[in-house]
Amino acid sequence: MALMGIASVGSATSQDANTNHASKLLTPKAGSELVLVALHYQAEDGIKPDCSHLVYEIYRQAGLNFRFASSRELYVGVDPFQRVHRPQAGDLIVWRGHVGIVVNPRKHSFYSSLRSGLMTDYYDAAYWTSRGAPRFYRYRVGVHATAASPKLLRTAHRNENFTSSGEEQLDSLTEPTGTLPDRDSSTEARSRLLIPAAELSAKPTAEEFRGALLHYIDDAGAELESRQSLDTSASVLVVDDLAVEKLRLKKDQGSIEIRLDCSVAVFNGQVSENPVTHKRNLNLLRSSAGWLVEDKEAPLYVPRQIALRLFAAQLAIATRQDAGNQEVTRLIRLLNALAPEK
User: Fold this and answer.
1) Domains of the chain (ranges plus CATH)?
2) pTM for this one?
3) What average pLDDT does the segment 78-86 reach?
């Protein structure tokens, strides 16, 4: 009986805590206002951010702050977001490797950074459902804050067309275009990386750039794993570590020379048999949004463990589908090169 009593108290405490958190979640009205902030978002200097940087910038512009996190981290859950099972406008919708902002849950639409631009799409489309069930997260405000940031309210109220509920305007503004968006990443997207100003100091150091680039490689690998595909005929670097050898900054421009320690490198379909060191020289350009890193003709950067899982999965598919001997041989060589030492 005593144990039952303790369990009962614990359950009540947990329910009270959840109720307390729920009372501080972003309201539906504030969520609709956040969507309007998203739909009027303008990329700095015409640079299209990736999905995780996009939602970070939109929330920041609305006065809803949080530590930048990759889509993989957001999928697991980060403060101050609380997971919910019935989405509303303004919630995060997250897959492993991709994130967006729910626009209209009745129409299953969301806003994100896609290959063809910043636009809305349907999360019940076959492409997205093939990536697995998404998770939804709602912003939780501080103990002494209202359910919407004052900055968010001011931003929304400046929009003369905004209605009390916001639903009518969202219905008219968020219909995806007749042309289906191009959802996959591209070589062009890999060649341009924006590191937000919040991630770097006013005078960025080599170590700060190193951390940001490693973060990018991890996030890119997670996105590839979520799609469960990796083109072995493309240029691929399986990265174990990264070092910054030279950093040159002069006002708003510069360059950075990096050394990548790689378990495997694939160039022109040829697989390296032994670990290799690969150097790349990247251009830097500062904007008000942060530092743009230009990596011309960028290869696919993949962390070792993710590459191992991807190549193993692709070998299984190739053997089931009776793929050509050349592809099977290439995948076996890749896995042998990645196999941990005995």
Assistant:
1) 15-173 (3.90.1720.10), 187-338 (no CATH)
2) 0.58
3) 93
